[in-house]
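[[Local backbone shapes]]
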Amino acid sequence: MNMTRRDSLALGLALAATACAPTGMESAGSRATAEGSLHALAQRSGRRFGSALSWGAAGADRGSFANPAYAAILERECGLLVPENELKWQWTRPSAGQFDFRQMDAIVDYATKKGFALRGHTLFWAPQKWYPKWLVGHDFGSQPSKAAEAMLVEHVRTVCRRYGDRIYSYDVVNEAVEPETGAIRDTVVTRAMGGEAMLDVMFHTAKAEAPHAQLVYNDYMSWERGTEDETHIAGVLKLLEGFRKRGTPVDALGVQSHIRLLKDLPVAEIVRESEGPWRRFLDEVVGMGYDLVITEFDVNDRRAPDDVGIRDRLVADYARAYLDVMLSYPQLGDILAWGMVDRYSWLTGFDPRADKSIKRGLPYDVDFRPKPLREAVAAAFAGASSRHG
């Protein structure tokens, strides 16, 4: 998703240096495989379910560590976790020569002790407007290509060696395609070494340093139809084709799946408009030999009615239709929501509703109660054909 949605980044920059992760050696795997959990239902078809989480600012009512009610939902429903922000350069690399993994270490410690599998998001987030300030103005010297490559290699090596096999999958590069043009984004890094060279260095280094890990290219192209969506999709396909031609070790496409109820139309009409072109895109992706991962699922309900009951039903129906399409592909593996509780969702601050109400795009509401969306996800998982069938 484009980073407007991540205006909340600044809120998380305060380090939780004094916070403590839970210490009990409990297994999320054993709890989340209980009959009826979302993870257990996903496992019926050979898949897994999980969620993003945030460490958050010290003392804030934010994320699983700060709120035991949220932690309980994660531990009950999920088998996988992914950090929302804490592995991004803004958090881990305050300067060219300095790393800071305090927040990420806490998340890894929590995930390990509670028995979660852990994804790494992300080794490089491509849009320059979300680089740390020092990188935007960085001088790569008289040999910029070599200097930029050395910086990227150092970063991947440092992260991958620190966490080893505790991270099973990486979004190696996130959002490298400019949606308006379909080209690789023009940034201080790509100007130093070239866009394709930058991408290839990232993936080849990740392969060397984390040979056990699934290596993912992650992006936010959407199944809703529009001119920008079409251009974005074409650019992603071109990028994936280039990876295959050059032998770049990319295992899967991460489909962020921030789906959008943005049209004032019946759900069936929106789905009818979207499904055909979206399937043609997915067919091309899997036809190149890529697996699929849903990396950041939620529903933007900006155009849904104010009435909460009606809105929740529309969100649930729309999500079910989308997930049914995605789950029809045996190449789809893990499914991760971008959070589990509306109280902590980036959606409310992004593209706000006219009534200024909290958006209801996650499985649980602000009071940690399950919504129709949770049941729609469960039903989609329960009815999914086998990943290996």
